[in-house]
């Protein structure tokens, strides 16, 4: 199969001279990307706030061990679901071949593999649970095995929505499914269903996701039979498997910590650790996934214009840093107040791992910004190499630090993420020469504003506690959050005014009446 200089198969590249609407003007692409970011970002922020509140409420009704059983099952299921996709959703987004054939053939593969893997998980639930260190989790795993099939049925229509930049519909699906999950989980937990409140809520959420993705995706290309094109499928799988290799290795190092805790420290420790991950890394990663989903199609449109691509990437990195860094650093400085105010005593052991993971949450998403760029420029193998570097650092670090319990595991995660970030800076220099050395300066303004915010919040803690008095820890936490937000916003405007004004300009363009555009 012939390839071009950028590494893309010919059928995945835009024919020479052919233009797309995104090529007509830089401003059009920027506006589309910003609109998608606003839709998905707004939905994600809303969901993370609601999810964190729901998680706090659930920790008051469920034990760490009950959470741990579901977390064990999800380690196995998420691993299995990764193989159901074979990278085909990314291939659907990037392919310039006949989208009807691409969608149909990709769906047949993902749905078929999802069905087979569901059966295998159901049959081998007990041995898998034994491997994870607790056979009781096998019952939960068997009940949750349909999640693999539901994932296979949702992947392709969801990829089509992203390819068409229909982020409003993606936002609707995210919001509705998560709210339904939260409602069911809380209702069942507070009526005494224990661990099954999470199991039933997960099943309903996944089934609803299939229904909404099918209902909101335009056309029925993915289930309308088309003539089979074996050559096209080989090309899709060739790109998809290569692209998924980076995702697979990323997933593996993302699961090593959970598997290690499950196998050697038990479900209780896993439940505590995964709640710390949920409050920190998953909150920040959720923001980053939103931006990645918006940026990958946008980068693909300008993949051949290297200078423009470099400017777009660095601007995206600055924007992402401005969102992610203060969120993570704000949680770091307020961690003691958050945990003692919002959680019960059973969860206080989360504090130090929580703070370490806050720092890791600033590094991993910034490093992961390169993933969309490498994939969109036809170099998905770079993601695989970066994942190997992180995994190579993580495994020995965990082995060395495991005697320190979940704190040691969290520290190992931080060390590996720092190493991975450095390696991705090196790889960036190979893809876009001169860009890697500009990554740190792009992040510096957000980091400076976040440090100023942390200093002011730290100084404000004692006066605010004295002002609010004993028994008003919740009010004090709210005041400190407001102080931090205002400090960060003020400092950022002073040192990063051009970016702030551009974002406000795009927001004005997005929300003003159509007659004024």
Q: Provide the low-confidence segments as ranges.
A: 1-27, 295-303
For the CA atoms, what is the radius of gyration? 23 Å
Strand content: under 5%
What structural class should be given to the helix and strand makeup? mainly alpha
Measured between the Cα atoms of the first and last residue, the distance is: 46 Å
Secondary structure: helix percent: over 70%
Mean pLDDT, all residues: 81
Please write the string of helix (H) and strand (E) elements.
HHHHHHHHHHHHHHHHHHH
SS summary, helix count: 19
Number of strands: 0
Largest sheet: none
Name the overall outline: globular
State the gist of this model.
This protein is mainly α. It is 80% helix and 0% strand. It is built from 19 helices and no strands.
Describe the structure.
The structure is a single chain. This protein is an all-alpha fold and 517 residues long. The chain is 80% helix and 0% strand. It is built from 19 helices and no strands. The chain has helices at 26-59, 64-85, 88-94, 99-123, 125-132, 137-144, 146-163, 167-189, 195-216, 230-264, 267-279, 281-301, 306-342, 351-376, 381-401, 406-431, 439-468, 473-495, 497-511. α1 (26-59) packs parallel to α8, α7 packs parallel to α9 (195-216) and α15 (381-401) packs antiparallel against α16. The chain is globular, with a radius of gyration of 23 Å. It starts with 25 loop residues before the first helix and ends in a 6-residue tail after the last helix. Residues 1-27 and 295-303 have low confidence and may be disordered.
């Amino acid at each position: 199969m012939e390839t071009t200089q950028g590494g893309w198969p010919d059928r995945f590249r835009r024919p020479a001279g052919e233009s797309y609407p995104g090529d007509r003007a830089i401003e059009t692409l920027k506006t589309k990307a910003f609109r998608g970011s606003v839709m998905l970002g707004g939905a994600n922020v809303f969901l993370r706030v609601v999810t964190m509140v729901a998680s706090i409420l659930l920790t008051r009704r469920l034990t760490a061990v009950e959470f741990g059983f579901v977390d064990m099952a999800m380690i196995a299921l998420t691993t299995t679901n990764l193989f159901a996709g074979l990278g085909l959703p990314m291939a659907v987004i990037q392919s310039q071949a006949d989208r009807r054939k691409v969608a149909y053939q990709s769906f047949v593969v993902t749905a078929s593999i999802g069905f087979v893997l569901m059966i295998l998980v159901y049959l081998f639930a007990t041995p898998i649970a034994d491997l994870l260190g607790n056979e009781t989790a096998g019952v939960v795993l068997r009940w949750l095995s349909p999640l693999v099939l539901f994932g296979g049925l949702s992947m392709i229509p969801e990829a089509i929505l992203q390819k068409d930049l229909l982020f409003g519909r993606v936002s609707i699906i995210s919001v509705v499914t998560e709210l339904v999950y939260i409602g069911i989980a809380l209702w069942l937990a507070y009526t005494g269903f224990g661990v099954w409140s999470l199991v039933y809520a997960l099943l309903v959420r996944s089934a609803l996701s299939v229904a909404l993705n099918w209902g909101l995706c335009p056309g029925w290309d993915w289930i309308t039979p088309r003539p089979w094109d074996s050559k096209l499928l080989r090309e899709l799988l060739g790109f998809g498997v290569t692209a998924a290799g980076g995702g697979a290795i990323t997933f593996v190092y993302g699961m090593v910590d959970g598997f290690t805790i499950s196998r050697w420290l038990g479900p209780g420790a896993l439940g505590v650790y995964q709640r710390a991950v949920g409050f920190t890394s998953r909150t920040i990663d959720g923001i980053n996934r939103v931006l990645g989903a918006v940026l990958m199609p946008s980068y693909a449109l300008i993949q051949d214009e290297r200078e423009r691509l470099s400017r777009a990437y660095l601007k995206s990195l600055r924007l992402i840093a401005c969102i992610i860094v203060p969120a993570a650093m704000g949680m770091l400085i307020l961690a003691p107040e958050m945990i003692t105010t919002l959680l019960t005593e059973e969860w206080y052991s989360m504090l130090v791992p929580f703070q370490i993971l806050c720092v890791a949450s600033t590094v991993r998403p910034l490093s992961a910004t390169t993933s969309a760029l490498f994939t969109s420029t036809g170099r998905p193998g770079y993601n695989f190499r970066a994942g190997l570097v992180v995994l190579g650092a993580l495994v020995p670090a965990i082995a060395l630090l495991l005697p320190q319990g979940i704190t040691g595991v969290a520290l190992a995660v931080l060390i590996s993420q720092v190493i991975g970030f450095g390696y991705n800076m090196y790889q960036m220099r190979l893809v876009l020469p001169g860009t890697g050395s500009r990554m740190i300066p792009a992040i510096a303004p957000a980091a400076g504003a976040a440090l100023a915010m942390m200093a002011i919040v730290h100084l404000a803690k004692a006066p605010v506690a004295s002002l609010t008095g004993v028994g008003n820890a919740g009010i004090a936490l709210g005041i400190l959050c407001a102080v931090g937000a205002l400090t960060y916003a003020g400092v950022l405007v002073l040192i990063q005014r051009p970016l702030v004004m551009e974002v406000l300009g795009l927001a004005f363009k997005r929300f003003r009446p159509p007659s004024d555009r």
